[in-house]
Every structure is written in C-alpha cells, then in structure tokens.
Amino acid sequence: MLRVSAPAKINLFLHVGPRRPDGYHALESLVCFSDAGDVLAFEQADVLTLSVEGPFAQGLETEANNLVLRAARALRERAGGTRGAAITLTKNLPVASGIGGGSADAAAALRGLIKLWDVNVGGVALQELALSLGSDVPVCLKSAPAMMAGRGERVAPVGELPRAAMLLVNPGVAVSTAEVFRRLGRTAEDVLAPVPPPPSAAHGLPGLLRYLAQTRNDMEASACAIAPAIGEVLDALRQNGAVLARMCGSGATCYGLYASEAMAAKAAQALSAAHPVWWVKATRIATPDIATRQ
Fold first, then answer.
1. Which residue in 76, 188, 233, 237 has the fewest CB atoms around it within 10 Å?
2. Catalytic residue list contains 136
3. One domain for residues 180 and 134
C-alpha cells in the first residue's frame, strides 16, 4: 500500500486585486504548509474507487465526484489506458475551511497515482492539469513554501521558512468564498503592490513576524462580517498567547503563530476547553519535504 500526505495549506498572507477578464481575481500570497493534514492510501485495483474515513468523513459522504476522484480521472485520461486504483482518504481536516483540504487531497491523489501507475506527466502538463482542478491545486503539488500569484497558476518556491509553532482553529461555520469575494468590491484601481521575498528559516520567528506585519488577509474583514465567529476565534487566539493571528484563505479556519510549541499546546488546551465545538489543532510550519513523506 502506498500512503501520501496531504498537508493543510496556510495562506500566511493573502492580497486580493481586481477581477481579471477571465472572472478570477488577481491574488498574491505567501503559502506554507502544516504538519497537520489528510492522508491518502492507494492500492492497485481493476476499477477506480474512493472510500473516505476519519473525523471529517461525514462532510464528504454525499460528494460522489469530489476532487480526489476528479483528479484521478483527469490523470487517467491524460495518461491514457483504463487504470484503476482503490483509494482511501483519511479526512482529518475540516471540509471547506480555507486551508486547502480538497486541493491538498487532489494534489496528493496526483502524486500518489503517478507513482502507483508509473506514468510520466511533464511538469508543465501536470501544472495545467492541477490548475484545471482548482486554483490552489498547483501550489499543493509540492506542498512547499511558495509565493502564489495570478489565480494560482504562478508558483515560485521560496525555500524553507522558520518552523514556527502554529495553532489552527475552525469555529465550525461555513463561509461562501463567492460571497466573500463579492463583498470585497474590488475595482481596477485596486492594483496589487509588489511584495518582497519572505525571510529564510535563518531569520527565525522574529524575522517572519516583521515580514508579515507588512501584509494582511484582504478577505478577513468580509468573512468576519459574514461569520462573526471568525472574529471570535481571532480574539481568542490573541488572548491566548498568539504573537500573530490571522484568517486562512477565505475562512473560516484561522491560524495563530506562537513563540514555542509548549505555548501553542497550552493555548490549544484552553481553547478546546472553552469552545468544545471548535476544531483546534496544535501544529507547526512544516519543512519543505512534507509532500514526499509516506
């Protein structure tokens, strides 16, 4: 059996520009990945099947054509033939929560099936296939720190970031990405300003914090207006020792950075006790090789 990790994607910042002629908004984001994530397992089979298990499996029970199956079918069509596989997705991340769970799963499906089926897909073709599945799938292919731009088609690796302790918190509310974008009200004048390269791991957490202080998540205010629980999560993170608290993607998950793993674990315990219905996960910024771990 082949096992592939699908780590959570974290937008450390997310700047949103005007709507493009193709209907997508121009984006600029520093993306990292977490040690927390879903897991996919693959076995040879005559037909293509998917089973879902884990704490958030229920959120995908009625989704007969989710991104994992779409990725598998798209790869099979690109490679030719009638290959099959028995895929098991262990869903550890909340569904539709702003941390790229579905996109990470689709990218992991592509990585796993390329190895299982022993197919050769060129880098450009693989990026195009990934983008056809969703804007976040290309950056999730390598699951390594990167600057993401355009609608997600431009991915530039940035090397290793400081391995900061992190807390991920989701209040269990749904937020419509389309509605968040609608409320942004971006115009042609909202041009994205250039963003300098991020600090390396050698600069540590202080260097990363100084860098992120110059950035923001443009979707945060709109999402908080739609779902006030997001603001409650951000306040709770700050009140429980986070040196930076910010919403992930379009929400509703938020991240908090901490000075140490012990402080993050203490905050996780406090938040879980105070808010039993929240999903709370103590983790950290992963090293760039997380996508290759099995």
1. 188
2. yes
3. no
pLDDT digits (tens, 9 = 90+) for 251-279: 899 999 999 999 999 999 999 999 999 99
Catalytic residue of the set 9, 91, 142, 281: 9
Domain with 232 in it: 165-284
Residue 281's φ and ψ, nearest 5 degrees, are -135, 115
| Residue 242 CB partners (closer than 8 Å, separation 6+) | 167, 256, 257, 258, 267
* Pairing between β-strand 254-258 and β-strand 154-157 as defined by DSSP bridges: unpaired
Helix axes 101-117, 67-79, angle to 10 degrees: 30
In the residue annotation, 281 being an active-site residue is answered as: no
Q: What pLDDT, in 10s, does the model give residues 163-220? A: 999 999 999 998 888 898 888 877 656 678 788 889 989 999 999 999 999 999 999 9
Domain boundary, last residue among 124, 158, 192? 158
Considering only 95-104, 151-160, 188-197, which range has the smallest mean pLDDT? Answer: 188-197
At 237, which CATH number?
3.30.70.890
Q: Do residue 146 and residue 203 come from a single domain?
A: no
Taking the model in full, what pTM does it have? 0.93
Residue at which a domain ends, from 125, 158, 191 = 158
Domain total of the chain = 2
pLDDT score for 294: 60
Q: Which of 35, 38, 136, 218 is catalytic?
A: 136
H/E stretch holding 115 reads helix 101-117
Q: Are residues 235 and 123 in the same domain?
A: no
What is the percentage of the chain residues whose pLDDT exceeds 90?
73
